[in-house]
Automatic annotation (TrEMBL):
It is found in: Cell membrane. GO terms for molecular function: transmembrane transporter activity. It is a multi-pass membrane protein. Pfam families: BCCT. The chain crosses the membrane at residues 16-35, 55-73, 93-114, 143-166, 193-212, 232-254, 266-286, 318-340, 352-371, 414-438, 450-470, 476-496. Keywords: Cell membrane, Membrane, Transmembrane, Transmembrane helix, Transport. GO terms for cellular component: plasma membrane. Belongs to the BCCT transporter (TC 2.A.15) family. It comes from the Bacteria. This is Choline/glycine/proline betaine transport protein.
Length: 673
C-alpha cells in the first residue's frame, strides 16, 4: 500500500463535505486573486443592493435571536442541561469564559477599541451634534455593535449545536440542528450541503480576518521598531509565525493549546486595560461607563428596531456599520458557535445564555469605555482632533493612541503580544472547527489533517493579501450572512421543537389507566402492555369490556332515578354513556377507537414483540365538555366503571359551584337563544 493510500485510509475527512467545499473555496479565491477589481466591483454592487433593500431582514433576524434567548432564560426550558441530566461541565468557569471570549471577539476588541469610537465621534453625519453628544453617541453605538445583539447571534448557533449534540447525542455539526425537521435525512446530501455552507463560511471568515489582522500587527511591529516597513515579505513572516504556532497548538489538543493561551491572554488584556484606566482620565472613565450603560439600557429597544427609515442621511453610516456588523457576526457564527458548543457540555441552558450574553458583553462595554472614551477625551481636550484626523487609518490608531501614555514601548509591545495571541487562538480554534465540520465531528483525526487546514488558511490569506483580493473575499463572506440568517431562524424553530419534546418526555406522568394499579392481574396487564393492537382488537375491547361496563352502570343510575342511556356505533368504533340534564350540560363519557403513530425506532427494535408497522389503535376516552381524553386500554370492566364514576363526581362538583355557571349552563343559554 502506497503512502497516498495510507493517508487516505487514515483520513477522517468526508468527501461529501470536503470536495464541494474546497472546489468553492479555491474557485472564489482564484477569481478574487486574479480578477480582484472585477470581483470586488460585482460583489460590492450585490452587497449594496442587499444592504439597501434587505437591511430590515438583518434587523428583524437579530432582534428575534435576542428575544428568543431572553425567552429561554426565563422559561422552564432554562434548567435543561446541555448533556445528560447528571452531566458536569468539562472546564472551570474561568477557563470556559476565557475561551468563549478569545474565540468570539478577542482580536476585534484590539482592532476596534479605539478605531470605532473615534470613527463615530468624528463622522460628519453627526456633525450637527455638539461634541458632548457625539462622544455619548460614539459610546452608545459601540456598545450596541459589541453588546448583547452580537453575542445573541453566536448564542443561537452555539446553543442549538450544544443541545442537539449533547442532549440528542447527534454529531457536533450544523446539520444536527435540523433534526426535528429532517430526522434521519440529516445524514443525506441535504446535511452535507448544510455543513459545506458552514465550512466555506468559516474558512472565508478566518482567512479575511487573518489577512486584515496581519496588517495591524505589521503596523504595531513597525511602531516598536521590530520591523522597518509594510512590505509583503514582512507579512509572510507574520503569517508563517502565527500559523506555525496555531498548527502546533491545534495538534496538541484544545485542552492544552487554546485553554492555556486564552487564559494568558485574558490576564494580559486586563492588565493593559487597567493600565489605561489608571493613567487615563480615571474618574471620567468610571462615570462615563455608568452613564453609558444606563444610556444603552434606556435606548435598547430603539436601537434594536431602528432602521433609520426616516433619516436617509444616516443610511450610508447605518449600512456600513450596523448592517455590516450584523452580517459579519452572522457569517462568523458557524465558526464561533461550533467552538462555543465544543466547550459548553454540562452547562444548563440558562447558564449558557447568561454567560454568553452577559459576561462578554459586560467586559466589552468596560473595555470599549476605557479605550474608546479615553481616546475621545484625549482627542477633545488635549490633542485637538489628532485622532479624529486618523479615523481612516484603523490599523495604526491603537498604537498612535498608546503614544500618549507613559511606557509607550512597553504598552505597544504588550498590545502586539495580545493581538498576536488572539490571532493564534482564533486560528487554532478555527483549524479545530473546520476539521470538525469536514469530518462530521470525528472523535480523532490525524495531525497532518489539522496541519492541512492551517497551511491552506495561511497560503490563501497570503495569496489574496498580495493580489489585493481580500476585500472581495470579505464581501463574499458578508453576502453569505443573508441566507444563513434564515437558516438560523430555522435553528430557533428546531430548538423549540426539541425542547418541547424534551420537557414533555421528562415531565410525562403515568398514564391515567395505571394510577390504581396493584399486583392484581399483573400478568394480564403485562400481556396488554406488550401487545400493539389493531383496529379489530380495540373494537373487540369496546364491545366486550367497555359497553357491558357502561350498561351495568346505566342500569344502576336508572335504579337511583337518574336517567342514563348507552349508545354505540354499528361498527363499535365508539361507545358512550349519556346523562341528560335540563339546566346544565349533559354528562357524557365515551370511548372511541383512535389511530396512534409509533416511532420508527420502536418499530425497528427487535426486543419488542408483535410490532411490524408504525401505527397502532387505542381506546381513547372523550367527554361532553370536549376535554382531552386518555388511553384506557389497560382497564378491566370494574375499572371502566370506576373511571366513569370519578368523572361524574368531578362533573357534579364543578356544576355545584356558582363561579362555573358560565361553563355548565350551556343548555339553558341555548334555550334562551
Amino acid at each position: 500500500m502506497g503512502i497516498a493510500q495510507r493517508i487516505i485510509q487514515k483520513s477522517t475527512l468526508k468527501k461529501g463535505i470536503v470536495v464541494p467545499s474546497l472546489a468553492f473555496i479555491l474557485s472564489v479565491s482564484f477569481i478574487s486573486s486574479f480578477f480582484p477589481k472585477r470581483a470586488a466591483a460585482l460583489l460590492n454592487q450585490i452587497q449594496g443592493f442587499i444592504f439597501t433593500n434587505l437591511n430590515w431582514v438583518y434587523i428583524w433576524a437579530v432582534t428575534l435571536f435576542v428575544f428568543f434567548l431572553f425567552f429561554l432564560v426565563v422559561s422552564r426550558y432554562g434548567s435543561i442541561k446541555l448533556g445528560d441530566n447528571d452531566a458536569t461541565p468539562e472546564y472551570s468557569f474561568f477557563s470556559w469564559v476565557s475561551m468563549l471570549f478569545a474565540a468570539g471577539m478577542g482580536i476585534g476588541l484590539m482592532y476596534f477599541s479605539v478605531a470605532e469610537p473615534i470613527s463615530h465621534f468624528s463622522d460628519q453625519v453627526f456633525g450637527q451634534h455638539n461634541e458632548i453628544q457625539r462622544a455619548k453617541d460614539a459610546q452608545l453605538y459601540t456598545f450596541f455593535h459589541w453588546g448583547i445583539h452580537a453575542w445573541a447571534i453566536y448564542g443561537v448557533v452555539g446553543l442549538s449545536l450544544s443541545y442537539f449534540a449533547y442532549r440528542y447525542k447527534l454529531p457536533l455539526s450544523l446539520r444536527s440542528c435540523f433534526y426535528p425537521l429532517l430526522k434521519d435525512k440529516i445524514n443525506s446530501p441535504a446535511g452535507d450541503l448544510i455543513d459545506t455552507f458552514a465550512l466555506c463560511s468559516t474558512f472565508f471568515g478566518i482567512t479575511t480576518t487573518l489577512g486584515f489582522g496581519v496588517v495591524q500587527l505589521n503596523a504595531g511591529l513597525v511602531q516598536v521598531g521590530v520591523m522597518d516597513g509594510y512590505g509583503f515579505g514582512y507579512q509572510v513572516v507574520i503569517v508563517a509565525v502565527i500559523m506555525g504556532i496555531s498548527i502546533t497548538s491545534a495538534t496538541t489538543g484544545v485542552n492544552k493549546g487554546v485553554k492555556f493561551l486564552s487564559q494568558v491572554n485574558i490576564v494580559a488584556a486586563i492588565a493593559l486595560m487597567l493600565f489605561i484606566l489608571a493613567l487615563g482620565p480615571t474618574v471620567f472613565l468610571l462615570g462615563s461607563f455608568s452613564e453609558g450603560l444606563g444610556h444603552y439600557i434606556n435606548e435598547f429597544f430603539n436601537l434594536t428596531f431602528n432602521t433609520h427609515a426616516y433619516e436617509p442621511n444616516l443610511h450610508p453610516w447605518f449600512f456600513s456599520w450596523t448592517i455590516l456588523y450584523w452580517a459579519w457576526w452572522i457569517s462568523w457564527s458557524p465558526y464561533v458557535g461550533l467552538f462555543i458548543a465544543r466547550i459548553s457540555r454540562g452547562r444548563t441552558i440558562r447558564e449558557f445564555i447568561g454567560a454568553v450574553l452577559i459576561i462578554p458583553t459586560a467586559f466589552n462595554f468596560f473595555w470599549m469605555t476605557v479605550f474608546g472614551n479615553s481616546a475621545t477625551w484625549l482627542d477633545s481636550y488635549q490633542l485637538g482632533g489628532l485622532l479624529s484626523s486618523m479615523a481612516d487609518q484603523t490599523d495604526r490608531l491603537l498604537f498612535e493612541f498608546l503614544n500618549f501614555f507613559p511606557a509607550t514601548g512597553a504598552t505597544s509591545t504588550l498590545a502586539i503580544f495580545i493581538i498576536f495571541i488572539f490571532f493564534v487562538t482564533s486560528a487554532d480554534s478555527g483549524i479545530f472547527v473546520m476539521n470538525s465540520i469536514a469530518t462530521k465531528n470525528a472523535a480523532k483525526s490525524p495531525k497532518w489533517q489539522l496541519a492541512f487546514w492551517g497551511i491552506l488558511l495561511a497560503v490563501l490569506a497570503l495569496v489574496l493579501l498580495n493580489a489585493g483580493g481580500l476585500g472581495s473575499l470579505q464581501t463574499m463572506t458578508l453576502l453569505t450572512a443573508l441566507p444563513f440568517s434564515f437558516i438560523m431562524l430555522l435553528f430557533c424553530y428546531s430548538l423549540m421543537q426539541g425542547l418541547t419534546v424534551d420537557v414533555n418526555y421528562y415531565e410525562k406522568e403515568f398514564s391515567p389507566a395505571t394510577v390504581t394499579w396493584s399486583g392484581v392481574h399483573w400478568k394480564e396487564r403485562l400481556q396488554r402492555i406488550l401487545s400493539f393492537k389493531d383496529r379489530k382488537a380495540v373494537v373487540n375491547f369496546l364491545q366486550h369490556t367497555v359497553e357491558p361496563a357502561l350498561h351495568e352502570l346505566a342500569a344502576a343510575f336508572n335504579a337511583q332515578g337518574v336517567s342514563a342511556n348507552v349508545a354505540a356505533a354499528d361498527d363499535y368504533m365508539w361507545v358512550e354513556l349519556t346523562i341528560q340534564h335540563e339546566r346544565i350540560d349533559n354528562f357524557k363519557y365515551g370511548v372511541r377507537c383512535e389511530k396512534k403513530d409509533i416511532s420508527d425506532f420502536l418499530v425497528s427494535e427487535e426486543n419488542i414483540p408483535d410490532l411490524d408497522q408504525n401505527r397502532t389503535y387505542i381506546p381513547q376516552s372523550y367527554f361532553g365538555d370536549n376535554r382531552v381524553g386518555y388511553n384506557i386500554e389497560y382497564f378491566m370492566r370494574e375499572e371502566v366503571i370506576a373511571d366513569v364514576l370519578k368523572q361524574y363526581e368531578r362533573f357534579l362538583e364543578l356544576s355545584s359551584q356558582v363561579k362555573n355557571e358560565i361553563f355548565t349552563a350551556t343548555n339553558l343559554k341555548r334555550r334562551n337563544e
